Protein: Dephospho-CoA kinase
Amino acid sequence: MIIGLTGGIGSGKSAVSDCFEKFGVTVVDADIVAREVVEPGTAALRSIAEHFGDDILTSQGALDRAALRTLIFSDESQRKWLEALLHPLIRNEITQQLSQSSSPYSILSSPLLLETDQASLADRILVVDVPVELQIERTVQRDSNSIDQVKAIINAQSSRELKQQKADDIILNIGTIEELEKDVSALHRRYLQMV
Ligand SMILES: CC(C)(COP(=O)(O)OP(=O)(O)OC[C@H]1O[C@@H](n2cnc3c(N)ncnc32)[C@H](O)[C@@H]1O)[C@@H](O)C(=O)NCCC(=O)NCCS
Ligand SMILES: Nc1ncnc2c1ncn2[C@@H]1O[C@H](COP(=O)(O)OP(=O)(O)OP(=O)(O)O)[C@@H](O)[C@H]1O
Structure:
């Protein structure tokens, strides 16, 4: 059984998947996979440099993620171009990593689970839900992004309401980390009964 874990930027997916990992559940994280497919030497990184120019690379030849972030969240057509290149590669790698899992069930954590065909890889959808104001507050605190950039990223993602509609399970992450851990623990027991 594969649980698709999703939520917008800064909603708490990593906090939730860290708890599942502590219970021995295999977690495949789409954000980590998205970094792997553009490592130096990959065909995808070469395509990105050809399309955006060598300024999109650091002096070490790696992807300048901050530069690409600024570009794609201010120009939808460039974001669509990047997604058309990367999403098939990300999906393939996710499938590969999930096939190697040996835990009773696995977690696929992805910010774009419901926006892409990654949803079809999951048997159940678990949404980490937070009010947008808290999402922005936690993200700005964690990252060096400005409020406007965080808002632009949120606008490129599906709405809180749509995620709630598509969810089989919802964790409302408005309390403490300890409360979040209790909610994950209860879900873990339920999931074990389902496999
Ligand atoms: C633009 C990039 C280089 C910025 O890298 P950076 O290290 O700053 O951020 P990181 O990759 O950790 O992503 C942070 C968050 O941004 C949001 N985000 C990233 N890509 C997208 C996107 N295409 N659409 C909407 N939100 C996105 C997600 O909430 C994600 O958790 C990077 O996000 C990227 O390559 N995005 C395109 C690939 C993609 O769609 N990844 C999402 C997982 S499938
Ligand atoms: N219940 C909570 N109480 C306080 N802080 C929290 C709570 N849950 C998450 N956080 C913090 O909020 C920030 C965002 O959480 P996290 O990194 O887990 O989100 P995410 O959904 O994985 O984000 P992204 O989509 O950007 O990868 C982190 O700094 C995290 O420590």
Notes: The first strand starts at residue 2 and ends at 6. The chain has a mean pLDDT of 97. The domain at 2-194 is CATH 3.40.50.300 (Rossmann fold).
